[in-house]
Amino acid sequence: MSKEKERSTSLTLNLSAAYRAPSRQRAESAMRSIRRAIMNRFKVSEVNVDPQINEMLWRRSKSSPPRMLKVRVRVEDDVAYVERHSE
């Protein structure tokens, strides 16, 4: 058995598609688009999002999440961990 290598990368996610949703559902839509983008890009079955990302989405209320978000993604054993990008 070979051990899968850990992959890590930084991404800027465009969340402007969440603004097509009704105003009271935009933060939820942004979270779904983060999960969907990570699953499609890294071909993983599970995505774990850090609570800080959730706080960033809800900081300006559920009707106006950020349009762009910088994140760091770490993939281990078919699970992606999404964390806030620290500069």
Could you describe the 3D structure shown?
This protein has 87 residues and is α+β, with helices and mostly antiparallel strands. 29% of the residues lie in helices and 31% in strands. Strand 3 and strand 4 form a beta hairpin. The longest helix is centred in the middle third of the chain and has 17 residues.
Strand content: 25-35%
As a whole number of angstroms, the C-alpha radius of gyration is: 14 Å
CATH architecture: Roll
The helix content is 25-40%
Q: What is the name of the CATH superfamily?
A: Ribosomal protein L31
Query: How many structural domains?
Result: 1
CATH classification, class level: Alpha Beta
The CATH topology turns out to be Ribosomal Protein L31e, Chain: W
Task: Enumerate how many helices there are, as a single number.
Answer: 2
What's the end-to-end separation, in Å? Answer: 37 Å
Q: Which residues sit in consecutive blocks of at least 5 with pLDDT less than 50? A: none
Provide the residue-averaged pLDDT: 92
Largest sheet data:
4 strands, mixed
Number of beta-strand segments: 4
- How is the largest sheet built, in terms of strand order? 1-3-4-2
Shape summary: elongated
Q: Assign the structural class, choosing from mainly alpha, mainly beta, alpha/beta, alpha+beta, or little secondary structure.
A: alpha+beta
Order of helices and strands: EHEHEE
